[in-house]
């Protein structure tokens, strides 16, 4: 059930909205987005792709800090079902290939709607976290000439038992603690956001999901980051990326869980800057 009070709490200062036509996987869709360092029109763009329960607001100030460090513009947006974007209808279940649909249809449609042309896309960097990291990998594999490179932070390339177990525990917390209220600060329809993500990850059919075979198509520079203390995935995720993408660089962070931009922001920013800066020189 949509909660208007939660929607008010989720309001994001500076957000704008792009209208995507029917055909963008679910369309028509209303996508919440925000620019970082918008005035730097000549700078390359970093597109931030949030986690499975994320939104513009949940990134907090990390995209700003990273863009300032890199001298880039940032495009931050809430995927359908999250933040203030078009919510998922409660009777709709995300399909097993929902991340592929985001990379294949929704992100390109958003770039079109914002008039980000081919030359800008060739200079564009994707920075994705968790499900967003998987979407970044899928976009890089499917659009190898439409980006400069990608950073995948705690991405999923196949389903591990630890992921499913942690997501099942999160469902228990959502239904028995104040987690729902906390997440409601970031989503206009918090149940839409939560159950869209939770239901598909706990769907038995999703256990066979894998994007490992697609990784070999990635040609542009790629950095994969994982925390040693991540309870949603193991180092096998980024080690598999390295096996399939010979030029990929890995960063394995100590004292870091599933959200390096919150758990170890300095180490993460240092790793990303060391990766991207030489590519731009």
TrEMBL record:
Domain AB hydrolase-1: 47-271
Cross-referenced PANTHER family: ALPHA_BETA-HYDROLASES SUPERFAMILY PROTEIN, HYDROLASE
InterPro entries: AB_hydrolase_1, AB_hydrolase_fold
Protein name per UniProt: Pimeloyl-ACP methyl ester carboxylesterase
Transmembrane segments: none
């Amino acid at each position: 059930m949509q909660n208007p009070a939660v929607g008010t709490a989720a309001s994001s200062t500076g957000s704008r909205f792009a209208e995507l036509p029917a055909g963008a996987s679910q369309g028509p869709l209303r996508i919440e987005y925000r620019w970082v360092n918008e005035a730097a029109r000549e700078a390359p763009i970093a597109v931030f792709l949030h986690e499975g329960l994320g939104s513009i607001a949940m990134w907090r100030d990390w995209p700003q800090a990273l863009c300032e460090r890199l001298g880039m513009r940032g495009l931050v947006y809430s995927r359908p079902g999250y933040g203030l974007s078009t919510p998922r209808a409660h009777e709709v279940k995300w399909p097993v290939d929902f991340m592929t649909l985001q990379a294949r249809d929704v992100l390109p449609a958003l770039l079109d709607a914002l008039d980000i042309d081919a030359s800008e896309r060739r200079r564009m960097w994707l920075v994705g976290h968790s499900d967003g990291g998987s979407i970044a990998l899928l976009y890089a594999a499917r659009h190898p000439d439409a980006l400069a490179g990608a950073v995948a932070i705690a991405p999923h390339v196949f389903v591990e038992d630890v992921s499913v177990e942690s997501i099942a525990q999160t469902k228990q917390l959502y239904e028995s603690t104040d987690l729902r209220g906390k997440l409601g600060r970031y989503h206009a329809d918090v149940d839409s956001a939560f159950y869209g993500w939770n239901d598909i990850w706990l769907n038995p059919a999703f256990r066979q999901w894998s994007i490992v075979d697609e990784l070999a198509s990635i040609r542009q520079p790629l950095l994969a980051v994982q925390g040693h203390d991540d309870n949603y995935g193991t180092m096998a995720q980024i080690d598999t990326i390295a096996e399939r993408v010979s030029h990929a660089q890995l960063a394995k962070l100590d004292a870091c869980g599933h959200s390096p931009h919150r758990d170890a922001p300095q180490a993460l920013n240092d790793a990303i800057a060391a990766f991207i800066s030489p590519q731009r020189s």
